[in-house]
Amino acid sequence: MPNLTIEIRNNMIPGLAGRVRTLVAAIVAKTAADIETNAKAVVPVDTGNLKNSIQMDISHVSSDLHAEVNVGATYGAYVEYGTVKMAAKPFLTPAVELARKPFEKALGAAIMAAVKK
Known about the structure:
Helices cover 54% and strands 7% of the residues. By secondary structure, the protein is mainly alpha-helical. Strands 1-2 form a two-stranded antiparallel ribbon. Helix 1 runs antiparallel to helix 4.
């Protein structure tokens, strides 16, 4: 059976790469903001330090297709994963999982919208 290769070059569909990138960059930023919001909604609160330390950051990343949600409190990992003396109280992992399906759906819709233009 012969191999079939389909090649789409950037100049074959003018503007497609730029349209997709613009849409995906917005989706990445929105998803990071959603993860921050979701994590803050479920994080255990004692003093509020851990909750206040959860921040979306797109200021220093190398690409508009990259965003980070950081936990600045040094003990955040202990709360998330637990210790031998303390049970885990996950807040970041559930926030990411909650944002996963909307992210995937938005990516599919963005690609379809860019192709239709």
